[in-house]
Input
Amino acid sequence: MKPITKKRFKAYLIDLAVSTAATAGVEYVLRKKIKSEAFHALVTPTAVMWALEYAQLRNSGRTIGYKTMGLAIENTDGTEPTPGQIVKRMAYRDTISTFDYIKDREAFEAQDGALLPHDRISGTVVKEQ
Output
């Protein structure tokens, strides 16, 4: 695994921990209104994680995990990602990207881990700060 990929993985774990804590608070409030366990198991965690990630990337181009690990997400031309790119990146990463990894592990990383399939699709790249 390349050094940037290791940092990206650690950043993702940090973001997951932050999202899990936020999900616990949101679930506490929603449990009184929504009784479906399936909703709380499937929809709430994903919605909270995507909302947090989207808000952070729109504000500063970095999530808490990426800031901690010294990484930033940019367009290939060095500008901040657009809202459409952010959504496309998150959706691809959490769905199809897994199959890309299973299909061809060696070609999964490009540019020493700065470019993963969801980055190629959305037109973004991860750089060290």
In short: Helices lie at 3-30, 37-60, 64-69, 83-94, 96-103, 117-122. Residues 3-30 form the longest helix (28 residues). The beta strands are 71-75, 124-128.
